[in-house]
Amino acid sequence: MYKVLVVEDDLVIARTLTAHLGKWGYEVVGVTDFKEVLSVFTQFQPHLVLMDISLPFYNGYHWCTQIRNISKVPVIFLSSMSDNMNIIMAINMGGDDFIAKPYDLTVVTAKVQAMLRRTYSFGEQTNIIEHNGGILNLNENTFIFNNEKVELTKNEFKILQHLMENVGKVVPRDSIIEKLWENESFIDDNTLTVNITRLRKRLEEVGISDYISTKKGIGYIIS
């Protein structure tokens, strides 16, 4: 089932879109806290976003830019601000399409279907893991914090992914070694320590310290 995120502050329009797309078999979530659009996005991990331009606190251009920093998920703008300047701005900010209000729900449905078909016809999905403001993009091997992107090595990425998939749990050193090198009997235990140290330094570059804690004699944990 495809998931659609609706970022629309007009409750009547948001409810109408949610109900209509739900009838077409989509799982739809509407944002209610417009200070936390990116947080809702990372938690819900939609396949497509329907975005209004005029929103409380920050406009749709802002949130589209934030989403583009971490994801290639298609964004369709829905707005009554449909002059050429706003349409151009929407596309330049990372939008994939623009539908002017007032609109026909059948047109919205057709555009959503077409966009999903084009984007995911080959099974491509954008997967992310988020914790305490840190966002790991599983497709791009990158980590983002406060809009700063860190390019990770293959091993750094695998370690961070394994830890973030087990937030709140102590991950044994043997488990990490096995995930990295498959057969731990051929790996010096110090090699993992070196990789963890390098990963911590990479995170510190974007202002994160103590993200990964050591449980002496056991392993590592992200709390």
From TrEMBL:
Has UniProt tagged this entry with the keyword Oxidoreductase?
no
Query: Which SMART domains does this chain map to?
Result: REC (SM00448), Trans_reg_C (SM00862)
Q: Name one Pfam family in it.
A: Response_reg
Q: Which InterPro entries match?
A: CheY-like_superfamily, OmpR/PhoB-type_DNA-bd, Sig_transdc_resp-reg_C-effctor, Sig_transdc_resp-reg_receiver, WalR-like, WH-like_DNA-bd_sf
Locate the Response regulatory domain: which residues?
A: 3-116
- OmpR/PhoB-type domain ranges (all copies): 126-223
From the UniProt annotation, which stretches of this protein bind DNA? 126-223
Give me the segments passing through the membrane: none
Residue numbers of 4-aspartylphosphate PTMs: 52
Enumerate the UniProt keywords alphabetically. DNA-binding, Phosphoprotein, Transcription, Transcription regulation
Gene Ontology cellular component terms for the protein in this record: cytosol; protein-DNA complex
- Provide the GO biological process annotations: regulation of DNA-templated transcription
- Show the GO MF annotations: phosphorelay response regulator activity; transcription cis-regulatory region binding
The job of this chain, per UniProt, is described as: May play the central regulatory role in sporulation. It may be an element of the effector pathway responsible for the activation of sporulation genes in response to nutritional stress. Spo0A may act in concert with spo0H (a sigma factor) to control the expression of some genes that are critical to the sporulation process.
Q: What is this protein called?
A: Stage 0 sporulation protein A homolog
